[in-house]
Input
Amino acid sequence: MPKHFRRLLRGTGLVCALALAATACGGSDNGNSDQKQVSSADIDAALKKGGTITVWAWEPTLKQVAADFEKEHPGVRVKLVNSGTNNDAYTALQNAVSAKKGVPDVAQIEYYALSQYALTKSVTDLKAYGADKLADSYSPGPWNSVRSGDGIYALPMDSGPMALFYNKKVFDTYKIAVPTTWDEYVEAARTLHKANPKAYITSDIGDAGMTTSLLWQAGSRPYKVDGTNVGIDFSDAGAKQYTDTWQKLIDEKLVAPVKGWTDDWYKGLGDGTIATLPTGAWMPANFASGVQDASGDWRVAPLPQWTKGATASAENGGSSLALPTLGKNKELAYAFVEYANSGKGVQTRVKGGAFPATTADLNSEAFQNTEFPYFGGQKANKVFAESAKNVPTDWTYLPFQVYANSIFNDTVGKAYVSGTKLTQGLKAWQDASATYGTEQGFTVQK
Output
């Protein structure tokens, strides 16, 4: 087991969190449910007084947001630090929390990783700052992702409502209709690969985020979390729909064995040998920068449905901005987070290519009528905004999802390279995740 994943939870003192549920293990009373309320007057006073806040984030549009925030509040300095992405970022943050030294005032944390920090009180409950009043400002998927129990542990930064990106040129060439169901998607895959054995409906060698998103859309709810009581079960009806369908694609070799975000992957998207990509609404900028030669070939459609006539979607990706409990300058930090994720900074980030989580921006005429030259002038935001409305809000990640995702390729991933079936892979993932959770002090049912 990778040592840094053990540190990720053990370093936060999970045993302490279990024994002292109402007290932050770091020894600070910040971030607790009984913390003092912070008024808008308190925040205004902090902005007037000024100071420096350190923000650990990798999202590029925050550079302009920070500059604008400093311009509005001349006494405030925002120190942006890129501490890495994904596991690198969380390892760096956990090391700082464990050492109680160098903890940032604001940290970017992806939705799937946030719950473990909330559970151990490593991030501040923002209800004390009035964050609960912003509930109606966000689309349901992202807002649900920053909540844990009665607390609100971050503000949504962006969102990733899913859609089907498809190569219209390829579909037109082989007279393939855009699939509206996953059964039609399988048939489209067969038609395409038969017509051109070098072409595949999509690429997939096993991806935890993609799998959990499709399970989410299918109605599967494999994770049940109530504090430190956790349930893991990949045998429900939604999971069966997913495995039955996706197993056909694997068995019939209808998905390209190409790893995402590699040169071969970009090449496949560009030359038409990878014909679709079901993913989050943040993808357009990556197409425009990484698949330039296929500009005009691609379009966006609603995600295929597991049941004909349904409209369910899911989130794929997305991040929040949280206030680590051991950070300083909490009022300034919250002011920046609200500015970036709910205030003027949202428009700055949207102009920079970010996809918003705020309903006002998602529903605005200007946003929905934006034409995408890359997608042949299509108003793709209309598809994305509708998808955001159709994300079920009862999805839950594990409080150790970072670790669970790290072992995905050792379990479910085997179904793509051996005779292991997806159902067997999911069961192996379930068992390995449950073992780890038990080792960490959780009560796990499977």
